[in-house]
Amino acid sequence: MRTVRALQRLRGVLSQSFSSSSAEKPMPGNSMLRHLTSKIKATGPISVAEYMREVLTNPVMGYYVQNDMLGPDGDFITSPEISQIFGELLGIWCLSEWMGAGKPSRFQLVEFGPGRGSLANDILRVFSQLRGALGGAAVSVHLVEVSPKLSQVQAQCLTGDQSQVSASEDEPVYRHGTTTTGLPISWYRNLDDVPRGFSIYLAHEFFDALPIHKFQGTEKGWREVMVDIDPDEPGKLRLVIVPAPTLASTQLIQADEKRRHVEVCPEGGVIVQRLANRITEDGGAALIADYGHDGTKMDTFRGFKGHKLHDVLASPGSADLTADVDYSYLRRMAGATVACMGPVSQKDFLKNMGIDTRLQVLLRNCADPSTRAQLIQGYDMLTNPLKMGERFQFFTMLNHTPLPVAGFSELGLS
Ligand code: SAH
Protein backbone atom coordinates (compact mmCIF):
# COMPACT_ATOMS: atom_id res chain seq x y z
CA MET A 1 0.00 0.00 0.00
CA ARG A 2 1.34 3.44 -0.90
CA THR A 3 0.98 4.85 2.56
CA VAL A 4 2.95 8.01 1.88
CA ARG A 5 0.87 8.96 -1.11
CA ALA A 6 -2.31 8.02 0.68
CA LEU A 7 -1.31 10.21 3.59
CA GLN A 8 -0.30 13.09 1.36
CA ARG A 9 -3.53 12.89 -0.54
CA LEU A 10 -5.71 12.65 2.46
CA ARG A 11 -3.98 15.28 4.51
CA GLY A 12 -6.59 17.85 5.26
CA VAL A 13 -8.89 16.74 2.49
CA LEU A 14 -11.36 14.46 4.10
CA SER A 15 -12.30 16.78 6.90
CA GLN A 16 -12.97 19.67 4.53
CA SER A 17 -15.28 17.91 2.11
CA PHE A 18 -15.44 20.15 -0.97
CA SER A 19 -14.99 23.42 0.82
CA SER A 20 -11.93 25.06 2.25
CA SER A 21 -10.00 28.03 1.04
CA SER A 22 -6.78 27.71 -0.94
CA ALA A 23 -3.73 29.92 -1.05
CA GLU A 24 -3.74 32.73 -3.60
CA LYS A 25 -2.35 31.58 -6.92
CA PRO A 26 -1.26 33.53 -9.97
CA MET A 27 -4.43 34.90 -11.51
CA PRO A 28 -4.69 34.91 -15.27
CA GLY A 29 -8.15 36.38 -14.62
CA ASN A 30 -7.46 39.92 -15.75
CA SER A 31 -5.91 39.08 -19.09
CA MET A 32 -8.61 36.47 -19.70
CA LEU A 33 -11.29 39.05 -18.85
CA ARG A 34 -9.68 41.54 -21.26
CA HIS A 35 -9.53 38.87 -23.94
CA LEU A 36 -13.22 38.00 -23.47
CA THR A 37 -14.47 41.57 -23.33
CA SER A 38 -12.63 42.53 -26.52
CA LYS A 39 -14.08 39.47 -28.22
CA ILE A 40 -17.61 40.40 -27.10
CA LYS A 41 -17.08 44.04 -28.14
CA ALA A 42 -16.03 42.86 -31.59
CA THR A 43 -18.71 40.25 -32.32
CA GLY A 44 -21.42 40.50 -29.67
CA PRO A 45 -22.36 38.17 -26.81
CA ILE A 46 -20.65 34.76 -26.84
CA SER A 47 -22.28 31.43 -26.07
CA VAL A 48 -21.66 29.87 -22.65
CA ALA A 49 -19.90 27.09 -24.58
CA GLU A 50 -17.45 29.53 -26.12
CA TYR A 51 -16.95 31.18 -22.75
CA MET A 52 -16.20 27.82 -21.10
CA ARG A 53 -13.88 26.74 -23.93
CA GLU A 54 -11.87 29.95 -23.74
CA VAL A 55 -11.71 30.07 -19.96
CA LEU A 56 -10.74 26.42 -19.52
CA THR A 57 -8.65 25.53 -22.54
CA ASN A 58 -7.43 28.71 -24.27
CA PRO A 59 -3.92 27.58 -25.33
CA VAL A 60 -2.19 30.53 -23.63
CA MET A 61 -4.22 31.42 -20.55
CA GLY A 62 -6.75 28.60 -20.12
CA TYR A 63 -7.39 27.40 -16.58
CA TYR A 64 -6.45 23.78 -17.35
CA VAL A 65 -3.51 24.78 -19.51
CA GLN A 66 -1.95 26.88 -16.74
CA ASN A 67 -2.67 25.09 -13.49
CA ASP A 68 -2.40 21.94 -11.44
CA MET A 69 -5.75 22.49 -9.76
CA LEU A 70 -6.30 19.11 -8.13
CA GLY A 71 -5.91 18.19 -4.49
CA PRO A 72 -6.01 19.83 -1.09
CA ASP A 73 -4.09 22.93 -2.20
CA GLY A 74 -6.02 23.29 -5.47
CA ASP A 75 -9.62 23.99 -6.38
CA PHE A 76 -11.25 20.57 -6.20
CA ILE A 77 -10.58 16.99 -5.18
CA THR A 78 -11.51 13.88 -7.14
CA SER A 79 -12.11 10.25 -6.20
CA PRO A 80 -8.80 8.88 -7.56
CA GLU A 81 -7.02 11.49 -5.43
CA ILE A 82 -8.94 10.44 -2.33
CA SER A 83 -8.32 6.70 -2.23
CA GLN A 84 -6.20 4.19 -4.11
CA ILE A 85 -9.11 1.74 -3.90
CA PHE A 86 -11.02 3.74 -6.52
CA GLY A 87 -8.39 3.22 -9.23
CA GLU A 88 -7.79 -0.37 -8.19
CA LEU A 89 -11.44 -1.24 -8.70
CA LEU A 90 -11.49 0.53 -12.07
CA GLY A 91 -8.40 -1.51 -12.98
CA ILE A 92 -10.36 -4.67 -12.20
CA TRP A 93 -13.23 -3.32 -14.31
CA CYS A 94 -10.88 -2.84 -17.31
CA LEU A 95 -9.55 -6.37 -16.91
CA SER A 96 -13.01 -7.81 -16.57
CA GLU A 97 -14.18 -6.10 -19.81
CA TRP A 98 -11.04 -7.26 -21.62
CA MET A 99 -11.72 -10.82 -20.45
CA GLY A 100 -15.39 -10.52 -21.40
CA ALA A 101 -14.29 -9.54 -24.92
CA GLY A 102 -12.35 -12.81 -25.27
CA LYS A 103 -8.92 -11.50 -24.17
CA PRO A 104 -7.83 -9.74 -27.39
CA SER A 105 -4.06 -9.87 -27.95
CA ARG A 106 -3.75 -6.06 -28.16
CA PHE A 107 -5.25 -3.96 -25.39
CA GLN A 108 -5.20 -0.15 -25.32
CA LEU A 109 -6.03 1.67 -22.13
CA VAL A 110 -7.22 5.15 -23.14
CA GLU A 111 -7.90 7.80 -20.51
CA PHE A 112 -9.43 11.23 -21.15
CA GLY A 113 -8.27 14.11 -18.96
CA PRO A 114 -6.09 12.12 -16.57
CA GLY A 115 -5.46 15.02 -14.14
CA ARG A 116 -2.44 14.10 -12.05
CA GLY A 117 -2.29 10.56 -13.41
CA SER A 118 -3.36 8.96 -10.13
CA LEU A 119 -6.19 6.88 -11.63
CA ALA A 120 -3.98 5.48 -14.40
CA ASN A 121 -1.23 4.84 -11.87
CA ASP A 122 -3.53 2.77 -9.64
CA ILE A 123 -4.89 0.88 -12.67
CA LEU A 124 -1.42 0.12 -13.99
CA ARG A 125 -0.37 -1.22 -10.60
CA VAL A 126 -3.31 -3.64 -10.76
CA PHE A 127 -2.32 -4.65 -14.31
CA SER A 128 1.22 -5.24 -13.11
CA GLN A 129 0.13 -7.30 -10.11
CA LEU A 130 -2.25 -9.34 -12.27
CA ARG A 131 0.23 -9.70 -15.13
CA GLY A 132 -0.49 -13.44 -15.17
CA ALA A 133 -4.17 -12.83 -15.91
CA LEU A 134 -3.24 -10.53 -18.80
CA GLY A 135 -1.23 -13.37 -20.37
CA GLY A 136 0.88 -12.12 -23.23
CA ALA A 137 -1.48 -9.31 -24.24
CA ALA A 138 0.30 -6.26 -25.66
CA VAL A 139 -0.97 -3.52 -23.35
CA SER A 140 -0.39 0.16 -24.19
CA VAL A 141 -1.49 3.37 -22.50
CA HIS A 142 -2.94 6.41 -24.32
CA LEU A 143 -3.77 9.68 -22.61
CA VAL A 144 -5.94 12.40 -24.15
CA GLU A 145 -4.91 15.61 -22.37
CA VAL A 146 -5.17 19.23 -23.46
CA SER A 147 -2.94 20.64 -20.73
CA PRO A 148 0.84 20.67 -21.23
CA LYS A 149 1.23 21.43 -17.54
CA LEU A 150 -0.84 18.44 -16.41
CA SER A 151 0.76 16.15 -19.02
CA GLN A 152 4.08 16.85 -17.28
CA VAL A 153 2.60 15.96 -13.90
CA GLN A 154 1.12 12.76 -15.42
CA ALA A 155 4.44 11.85 -17.05
CA GLN A 156 6.26 12.27 -13.75
CA CYS A 157 3.69 10.13 -11.94
CA LEU A 158 3.48 7.36 -14.54
CA THR A 159 6.96 7.18 -16.04
CA GLY A 160 9.33 8.84 -13.56
CA ASP A 161 11.62 10.52 -16.07
CA GLN A 162 11.04 7.97 -18.85
CA SER A 163 9.16 10.24 -21.25
CA GLN A 164 10.09 12.64 -24.04
CA VAL A 165 8.28 15.58 -25.55
CA SER A 166 7.88 15.32 -29.32
CA ALA A 167 10.15 17.45 -31.48
CA SER A 168 7.34 19.41 -33.11
CA GLU A 169 4.29 20.90 -31.39
CA ASP A 170 2.16 19.73 -34.32
CA GLU A 171 2.83 16.02 -33.80
CA PRO A 172 -0.39 14.13 -32.95
CA VAL A 173 1.60 12.34 -30.21
CA TYR A 174 3.06 15.24 -28.26
CA ARG A 175 4.75 13.17 -25.57
CA HIS A 176 5.62 9.50 -25.28
CA GLY A 177 7.55 7.16 -23.01
CA THR A 178 7.49 3.98 -20.94
CA THR A 179 5.53 3.56 -17.72
CA THR A 180 7.27 2.50 -14.53
CA THR A 181 5.54 -0.84 -15.06
CA GLY A 182 7.15 -1.18 -18.52
CA LEU A 183 4.28 -0.28 -20.88
CA PRO A 184 4.43 2.11 -23.84
CA ILE A 185 2.55 5.35 -23.11
CA SER A 186 1.60 8.28 -25.39
CA TRP A 187 -0.12 11.65 -25.01
CA TYR A 188 -2.58 13.20 -27.53
CA ARG A 189 -4.77 16.28 -27.67
CA ASN A 190 -7.64 14.55 -29.47
CA LEU A 191 -9.29 11.15 -29.56
CA ASP A 192 -8.91 11.13 -33.35
CA ASP A 193 -5.15 10.83 -32.96
CA VAL A 194 -5.35 7.73 -30.71
CA PRO A 195 -4.62 4.56 -32.76
CA ARG A 196 -7.58 2.33 -33.58
CA GLY A 197 -7.87 -1.10 -31.96
CA PHE A 198 -9.51 -2.84 -29.00
CA SER A 199 -9.59 -0.22 -26.26
CA ILE A 200 -11.00 0.44 -22.84
CA TYR A 201 -11.80 4.14 -22.64
CA LEU A 202 -12.03 5.88 -19.27
CA ALA A 203 -13.28 9.39 -18.56
CA HIS A 204 -13.41 10.45 -14.92
CA GLU A 205 -14.49 14.04 -14.31
CA PHE A 206 -13.73 14.83 -17.95
CA PHE A 207 -17.14 15.34 -19.58
CA ASP A 208 -18.18 17.86 -16.92
CA ALA A 209 -15.34 20.13 -18.10
CA LEU A 210 -16.53 20.21 -21.72
CA PRO A 211 -18.35 23.34 -22.93
CA ILE A 212 -22.13 23.49 -22.60
CA HIS A 213 -24.73 25.65 -24.32
CA LYS A 214 -27.49 26.97 -22.03
CA PHE A 215 -31.07 27.51 -23.14
CA GLN A 216 -34.11 29.08 -21.52
CA GLY A 217 -37.69 28.26 -22.45
CA THR A 218 -39.58 31.55 -23.07
CA GLU A 219 -43.03 32.50 -24.30
CA LYS A 220 -41.51 32.92 -27.74
CA GLY A 221 -39.79 29.53 -27.66
CA TRP A 222 -36.28 28.40 -26.77
CA ARG A 223 -33.67 31.12 -26.46
CA GLU A 224 -29.93 30.79 -25.82
CA VAL A 225 -28.33 32.17 -22.66
CA MET A 226 -25.13 34.01 -23.58
CA VAL A 227 -22.29 35.91 -21.95
CA ASP A 228 -22.28 39.68 -22.43
CA ILE A 229 -20.56 42.74 -20.93
CA ASP A 230 -22.52 44.29 -18.07
CA PRO A 231 -23.58 47.75 -19.38
CA ASP A 232 -23.59 49.14 -15.82
CA GLU A 233 -20.10 47.83 -15.02
CA PRO A 234 -18.04 47.42 -18.20
CA GLY A 235 -15.34 45.45 -16.32
CA LYS A 236 -17.91 42.77 -15.47
CA LEU A 237 -19.66 40.05 -17.41
CA ARG A 238 -23.30 39.00 -17.13
CA LEU A 239 -25.57 36.29 -18.52
CA VAL A 240 -28.27 37.43 -20.97
CA ILE A 241 -31.09 35.67 -22.78
CA VAL A 242 -30.66 36.66 -26.42
CA PRO A 243 -33.91 37.82 -28.10
CA ALA A 244 -33.61 35.88 -31.36
CA PRO A 245 -33.07 32.13 -31.85
CA THR A 246 -29.46 31.01 -32.45
CA LEU A 247 -28.27 28.08 -34.54
CA ALA A 248 -27.69 26.18 -31.28
CA SER A 249 -31.16 26.96 -29.88
CA THR A 250 -32.81 25.70 -33.07
CA GLN A 251 -30.65 22.55 -33.35
CA LEU A 252 -29.89 21.26 -29.87
CA ILE A 253 -33.24 21.07 -28.08
CA GLN A 254 -35.36 17.92 -28.28
CA ALA A 255 -38.87 18.44 -29.65
CA ASP A 256 -40.44 16.82 -26.56
CA GLU A 257 -38.28 18.69 -24.02
CA LYS A 258 -40.25 19.27 -20.79
CA ARG A 259 -37.74 21.33 -18.80
CA ARG A 260 -37.74 25.14 -18.89
CA HIS A 261 -33.97 25.42 -18.74
CA VAL A 262 -31.60 23.04 -20.53
CA GLU A 263 -27.84 22.60 -20.82
CA VAL A 264 -26.44 20.71 -23.81
CA CYS A 265 -22.82 19.67 -24.37
CA PRO A 266 -22.41 19.04 -28.12
CA GLU A 267 -18.66 18.44 -27.76
CA GLY A 268 -19.41 15.62 -25.32
CA GLY A 269 -21.97 14.29 -27.80
CA VAL A 270 -19.40 14.22 -30.61
CA ILE A 271 -16.85 12.39 -28.45
CA VAL A 272 -19.46 9.81 -27.45
CA GLN A 273 -20.42 9.29 -31.12
CA ARG A 274 -16.77 8.72 -32.01
CA LEU A 275 -16.36 6.34 -29.10
CA ALA A 276 -19.47 4.42 -30.14
CA ASN A 277 -18.10 4.15 -33.66
CA ARG A 278 -14.70 2.90 -32.48
CA ILE A 279 -16.21 0.45 -30.00
CA THR A 280 -18.50 -0.97 -32.67
CA GLU A 281 -15.72 -1.37 -35.22
CA ASP A 282 -12.70 -2.25 -33.06
CA GLY A 283 -14.23 -3.69 -29.88
CA GLY A 284 -13.91 -2.40 -26.35
CA ALA A 285 -15.87 -0.39 -23.84
CA ALA A 286 -16.06 3.10 -22.39
CA LEU A 287 -16.64 3.99 -18.76
CA ILE A 288 -17.74 7.54 -18.00
CA ALA A 289 -17.92 8.70 -14.38
CA ASP A 290 -18.99 12.18 -13.41
CA TYR A 291 -21.43 14.40 -11.58
CA GLY A 292 -24.48 13.70 -13.62
CA HIS A 293 -28.19 13.23 -14.16
CA ASP A 294 -30.43 11.44 -16.62
CA GLY A 295 -32.00 14.41 -18.38
CA THR A 296 -33.71 15.84 -15.31
CA LYS A 297 -31.55 18.69 -13.99
CA MET A 298 -31.66 22.24 -15.30
CA ASP A 299 -29.13 24.83 -14.14
CA THR A 300 -25.94 23.05 -13.06
CA PHE A 301 -23.26 25.38 -14.49
CA ARG A 302 -20.96 26.41 -11.63
CA GLY A 303 -17.43 27.39 -10.67
CA PHE A 304 -15.07 26.03 -8.03
CA LYS A 305 -12.16 27.81 -6.50
CA GLY A 306 -10.30 26.70 -3.41
CA HIS A 307 -12.94 23.97 -2.84
CA LYS A 308 -15.68 26.61 -2.66
CA LEU A 309 -18.41 27.53 -5.08
CA HIS A 310 -17.33 30.46 -7.21
CA ASP A 311 -19.32 32.84 -9.44
CA VAL A 312 -18.91 31.42 -12.96
CA LEU A 313 -18.33 34.90 -14.43
CA ALA A 314 -15.99 36.33 -11.78
CA SER A 315 -12.23 36.52 -12.57
CA PRO A 316 -12.51 34.03 -15.44
CA GLY A 317 -9.53 31.71 -15.74
CA SER A 318 -8.88 31.59 -12.01
CA ALA A 319 -11.52 28.96 -11.17
CA ASP A 320 -12.74 25.63 -12.49
CA LEU A 321 -15.98 25.67 -14.50
CA THR A 322 -18.19 22.61 -14.62
CA ALA A 323 -21.67 21.41 -15.55
CA ASP A 324 -23.32 18.11 -14.63
CA VAL A 325 -23.21 15.50 -17.37
CA ASP A 326 -26.57 14.77 -19.00
CA TYR A 327 -26.41 11.01 -19.49
CA SER A 328 -29.70 10.91 -21.39
CA TYR A 329 -28.06 13.12 -24.04
CA LEU A 330 -24.93 10.94 -24.16
CA ARG A 331 -27.08 7.81 -24.53
CA ARG A 332 -28.98 9.42 -27.41
CA MET A 333 -25.74 10.46 -29.11
CA ALA A 334 -24.20 7.00 -28.65
CA GLY A 335 -26.85 5.56 -30.96
CA ALA A 336 -28.03 2.00 -31.35
CA THR A 337 -24.81 0.22 -32.35
CA VAL A 338 -23.49 0.07 -28.78
CA ALA A 339 -25.13 -1.11 -25.58
CA CYS A 340 -25.38 1.62 -22.92
CA MET A 341 -25.80 0.92 -19.21
CA GLY A 342 -26.35 3.29 -16.33
CA PRO A 343 -26.11 5.80 -14.93
CA VAL A 344 -25.68 4.02 -11.61
CA SER A 345 -24.50 5.78 -8.48
CA GLN A 346 -20.82 5.64 -7.52
CA LYS A 347 -21.84 3.91 -4.30
CA ASP A 348 -23.60 1.09 -6.17
CA PHE A 349 -20.86 0.79 -8.77
CA LEU A 350 -18.07 0.54 -6.20
CA LYS A 351 -20.06 -1.87 -4.01
CA ASN A 352 -20.73 -4.08 -7.03
CA MET A 353 -17.01 -3.97 -7.78
CA GLY A 354 -16.23 -5.25 -4.29
CA ILE A 355 -15.10 -2.12 -2.43
CA ASP A 356 -16.13 -3.59 0.93
CA THR A 357 -13.94 -6.66 0.49
CA ARG A 358 -11.02 -4.58 -0.80
CA LEU A 359 -11.25 -2.28 2.21
CA GLN A 360 -11.23 -5.27 4.57
CA VAL A 361 -8.12 -6.71 2.87
CA LEU A 362 -6.27 -3.39 3.14
CA LEU A 363 -7.29 -2.98 6.78
CA ARG A 364 -6.20 -6.52 7.59
CA ASN A 365 -2.72 -5.75 6.23
CA CYS A 366 -2.38 -2.39 7.89
CA ALA A 367 -1.43 -1.91 11.55
CA ASP A 368 -0.94 1.87 11.60
CA PRO A 369 -4.01 3.40 13.29
CA SER A 370 -3.91 6.70 11.38
CA THR A 371 -3.62 4.97 7.98
CA ARG A 372 -6.49 2.68 8.97
CA ALA A 373 -8.59 5.69 9.91
CA GLN A 374 -7.77 7.34 6.58
CA LEU A 375 -8.69 4.24 4.60
CA ILE A 376 -12.05 4.19 6.32
CA GLN A 377 -12.57 7.93 5.80
CA GLY A 378 -11.68 7.58 2.12
CA TYR A 379 -14.16 4.73 1.77
CA ASP A 380 -16.83 6.84 3.42
CA MET A 381 -16.11 9.84 1.20
CA LEU A 382 -16.42 7.72 -1.96
CA THR A 383 -19.52 5.75 -1.01
CA ASN A 384 -21.53 7.82 1.47
CA PRO A 385 -24.69 9.04 -0.31
CA LEU A 386 -24.29 12.42 1.40
CA LYS A 387 -20.72 12.80 0.10
CA MET A 388 -19.66 11.41 -3.29
CA GLY A 389 -21.74 8.21 -3.23
CA GLU A 390 -24.86 9.52 -4.98
CA ARG A 391 -23.74 12.66 -6.79
CA PHE A 392 -21.29 10.76 -8.95
CA GLN A 393 -22.72 8.46 -11.56
CA PHE A 394 -21.24 5.72 -13.74
CA PHE A 395 -22.26 5.07 -17.33
CA THR A 396 -20.86 2.55 -19.79
CA MET A 397 -20.94 1.91 -23.54
CA LEU A 398 -20.12 -1.60 -24.77
CA ASN A 399 -20.07 -3.47 -28.05
CA HIS A 400 -21.68 -6.51 -26.54
CA THR A 401 -24.79 -7.21 -24.56
CA PRO A 402 -24.00 -10.47 -22.78
CA LEU A 403 -24.85 -9.30 -19.31
CA PRO A 404 -24.00 -8.91 -16.49
CA VAL A 405 -21.46 -6.09 -16.74
CA ALA A 406 -19.13 -5.60 -13.77
CA GLY A 407 -20.03 -2.63 -11.60
CA PHE A 408 -23.54 -2.40 -13.06
CA SER A 409 -24.23 -5.69 -11.35
CA GLU A 410 -21.98 -7.73 -9.06
CA LEU A 411 -18.49 -8.48 -10.30
CA GLY A 412 -17.84 -12.01 -11.58
CA LEU A 413 -14.46 -12.77 -13.17
CA SER A 414 -14.34 -15.78 -15.47
N1 SAH B 1 -9.61 12.68 -14.34
C1 SAH B 1 -8.86 13.45 -13.37
C2 SAH B 1 -8.85 14.97 -13.65
C3 SAH B 1 -10.18 15.65 -13.81
S1 SAH B 1 -9.96 17.38 -14.19
C4 SAH B 1 -9.38 13.15 -11.98
O1 SAH B 1 -10.50 12.67 -11.85
O2 SAH B 1 -8.67 13.41 -11.01
C5 SAH B 1 -10.26 17.43 -15.94
C6 SAH B 1 -9.12 16.89 -16.79
O3 SAH B 1 -9.51 16.96 -18.17
C7 SAH B 1 -7.80 17.66 -16.70
O4 SAH B 1 -6.74 16.74 -16.85
C8 SAH B 1 -7.91 18.61 -17.89
O5 SAH B 1 -6.68 19.15 -18.30
C9 SAH B 1 -8.54 17.72 -18.92
N2 SAH B 1 -9.28 18.40 -19.99
C10 SAH B 1 -10.22 19.35 -19.85
N3 SAH B 1 -10.75 19.69 -21.05
C11 SAH B 1 -10.13 18.91 -21.96
C12 SAH B 1 -10.24 18.78 -23.39
N4 SAH B 1 -11.10 19.52 -24.07
N5 SAH B 1 -9.47 17.86 -23.99
C13 SAH B 1 -8.60 17.09 -23.29
N6 SAH B 1 -8.45 17.17 -21.95
C14 SAH B 1 -9.20 18.07 -21.28
Brief descriptors of the model:
414 residues; disordered N terminus; binds S-adenosyl-L-homocysteine; 16 helices; alpha/beta; 10-stranded mixed β-sheet; 5-stranded antiparallel β-sheet; 18 strands
Overview of the molecule:
Keywords: Methyltransferase, Mitochondrion, Transferase, Transit peptide. This protein has helices at residues 3-10, 29-43, 48-57, 63-66, 79-82, 84-100, 118-129, 131-134, 148-159, 247-251, 266-282, 327-334, 346-352, 355-364, 369-383, 385-389; strands at 46-47, 106-112, 138-144, 163-165, 173-178, 184-188, 199-204, 213-218, 221-229, 237-241, 261-264, 284-293, 302-305, 308-310, 320-322, 325-326, 339-345, 392-398. It has 16 helices and 18 strands. Helices cover 37% and strands 23% of the residues. With 414 residues, the chain is of the alpha/beta class. Strand 5 (173-178) and strand 6 form a beta hairpin. The strands form three sheets. Strands 2, 3, 4, 5, 6, 7, 12, 16, 17 and 18 form a ten-stranded mixed beta sheet that branches. Strands 1, 8, 9, 10 and 11 form a five-stranded antiparallel beta sheet that branches. The structure holds S-adenosyl-L-homocysteine. S-adenosyl-L-homocysteine is lined by residues 56-57, 64, 70, 78, 80-81, 113-115, 144-147, 150, 204-206, 209.
